[in-house]
Amino acid sequence: MAEPEERAGFELPLLLFAGFRSIIDELHGELAAHGHPDVRPAYGFALQAVGRDGASAGGIGRRLGVSKQAAGKTVEKLEALGYVERVDDPQDGRRKVVRLTPRGTDVLVRSAREFDRIRAEWVASLGAERMAAMEAGLRAMAPASAFRLDAAGWFTG
User: Fold this and answer.
1) Residues near 82 by beta carbon (within 8 Å), at least 6 away in sequence
2) pTM greater than the 0.90 cutoff
3) Is 101 within 8 Å of 85 (Cβ atoms)?
4) Topology given in CATH for the domain delimited by 40-114
5) Where are the domains of the chain?
6) I need a labelling partner for 18 at 20 to 30 A (CA). Which of 12, 62, 97, 115 fits?
7) Judging by DSSP bridges, how do beta strands 84-89 and 92-100 pair with one another?
8) What distances in angstroms separate CA 130 from CA 15, 24, 46, 115, 127, one per listed residue?
9) Can you tell me the mean pLDDT for 94-105?
10) Cα angle vertex 44, ends 42, 47, to 5°?
């Protein structure tokens, strides 16, 4: 059996990022074509942080790993675009809860469908066995704590 080709260590994170970027760029092209031209990758993390039940700006900030103020700015952008709304907290009338609007739910549902479609294209291109092996390898190497919503904040700061 032949030895695997020697590669420079820096190439692995670049290839992983290039794969991630190609998926995200394709997703956002499709979202734009279906009525969501203003959605940015960081907004997806923020919408996930809002969740089905809504959250306070502070809670969103904690989930994203950013300050309450930074979360508030993102919420303002999402609110202006019609993806979230602020409503009175049913448990504490002094607080506001950020919750998804139907438009926000639509972008998340469309995103999930598009991720499934893109993955199916990768399976068709690479083959089911290679795809399963790649995913299994990534799961083995990435700790469970790597699946966090604060990825967007991690890139910027």
Assistant:
1) 101, 103, 104
2) no
3) yes
4) Arc Repressor Mutant, subunit A (1.10.10)
5) 40-114
6) 62
7) antiparallel
8) 16, 21, 32, 18, 6
9) 94
10) 115
